[in-house]
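[job 0412] stage=complex_fold ligand=magnesium ion status=START
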Amino acid sequence: MRIADRYDAFLFDLDGVLFREAEPIPGAAEVLAELRAAGRGLAFVTNNSSRPPAEVGAHLRALGIAADPTEVVTSAQATGELLAEQGVGTAYVLGEAGLRVALAEAGVGIVDGEPERVDAVVVGLDRAVTYERLRIAGELVQRGARLVASNADASFPAPGGVTWPGAGAIVAAIETATGVRAEVVGKPHAPLFRMALGRAGGVRPLVVGDRLDTDVAGAAALGWDAALVLTGVTTAEEAARADPPATYVLEDLRGLLLDPGA
Ligand SMILES: [Mg+2]
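[job 0412] stage=complex_fold status=DONE, emitting structure tokens
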């Protein structure tokens, strides 16, 4: 049986799975069209908190990949929904537009300046972070604010083959300063995956990703299957040594349309 016929929901990571920077990965548009035609639920899941879903959907469509913004689930959105559900009313935010908009849309009040107290300090990638804002965030956590991270990615790929500090590097600064560990919403943690499955619909999800530490480990922790594609950051050798291993290791996502036992 084809992998596509074994699951009713497919939760796709983006970078390294559907595209690499500005280039679509071969077969991405066709495979998604085939899954849609077969009635499978789809969601596009990203730890990136800086771009709102509409922008992510537009980027996919510009690459020729059909995607509706309602199918895009970002760590920023999941953070907003989770905090609103938990009754968090006010937040001090280290983050960019995607995170601030998602929190506001969920009904969380964003407090700027130098507040005495807030319910939560929320951290995502913030390319304009300053010592001043790290200090205020740290003081608020010491006065009892929850420390919540949209994701804890240490770094992200940058031009020239180097990496730049990610949200996790900013979270680590506050954790180091306060001794408080952040609650993390994004992959490999469960909240983002659960929200993605809710969006896709279905009860038998397959996570499709290119990273062992987020996509595969996160799926395994939930007892879900994962397909690792070799079009991103992980090599076949690394995939073979992985613990936990991916359910399937595929050259690219066209493998979803094949029977791995054949
Ligand atoms: Mg990826």
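DSSP finds nine helices and 15 strands in the chain.
[job 0412] exit 0
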